[in-house]
Give the backbone structure.
Amino acid sequence: MKKQVILALALMIGSFSFAQKKELKTAEKAIKSSNFADAKAAINAAESLMSAMDDKTKAKFYFLKGQALYANGAGSNEDIDGALESFKMLLDIEKTEKKVYTPQANNLKAQMGIALVQKGTTAYGNKNFELASSNFEKAYRISPSDTVYLYNAATAAVNGKDYDTALKIYAELSDVGYTGITTQYMATDVTTGEDQAFPSSILRDAAVRQKSHSNPRIVKADSKVGEIAKNIALIYVNKGDNDKAIEAIEKAKQSNANDTGLILAEAELYRKMGDDDKYAKAVGKALELDPNNVILVFNLGVNAADNEDFEAAKKYYDRAIEIDPTYSNAYMNMAVLILDQEKGIIDEMNKLGTSAADNKKYDELKVKREKVYRDATPYLSKVLELNPKDINAATTLMNLYSALDDTENFKAMKAKVEALKNGN
């Protein structure tokens, strides 16, 4: 009787083993034929037999399951999550076993990471920020050394106003010591004149020796610490928690006290909180650290303009132009700043009646408005000189010349606008 029980158990184990191999073989064959629906069905059937699998068979099962769910990139977001989990289980099993499937799984994960980044980029471009954030974060989980993917996930979450997710990711970025500072090995393509980044100085220098590239140089990206601290702080401000906003800035300053981006973030925070004294102090420190940084000075002008401080904005834009006379953004923003004064003049004109006094006042305001147009014109002309294809500057100039009854310049600018619209 005992022998019969042992024999029956052996037969049962044998039948389980046969069933496992059959289902896994079916899944493997379906995957090779790109028939992922049948592959998933076979995997589901094999999953019920897992309790009888040895580690070698389990490793194969998880490898095939990951392939079936990924479906060469056609799997749903839920399937992608399942595929990554399957590969994780495979790696856990083969930590102590001979690595049969791990190399193939790692290659497939790398492909998945590239596909996720592409999907994330497309979703971001389509303003589907939730999907973009999810895909970038998954790409980071696949390749934790590529922390920029996690940063992109946070950026997408902020743009999608998913502040809780953004805060969670920013906290993780802080934990891994992310700064965003990268080194790029650049050279200029001799044929196209375009700059190109190389993965290493060795490859860049080889291209220069072959004379296909010139002007080798190293370009370092600016720190993202200030931007991250600013975003965290502004999220807390939006949540009505100013104390945590200040805490986030102070924490970042402990290791980056002289980061101008961070100091500007602090200034912006105090501006939003209405603390003008601390705002002015932070701005002063930023300028003290980097007085000739044209972007810094320009951004201070933008902040002042946003705060409707015309004189301060004008001062910063003038300073930016002084630092870099070719910085077209400063000329454009100066023109916008000047033209913004028109609204107040028009509002005042619209309130006037038809009396002699009102008519006189109207004429005075008309002259004042024309002065605004004349003051803005040189800045727009400079923008067009620096960027001859800037259709916005050309169109605005055309309208200003029309309002000023400057027929000659109006006709010239109209012709230029039409040429730009036709791609000339």
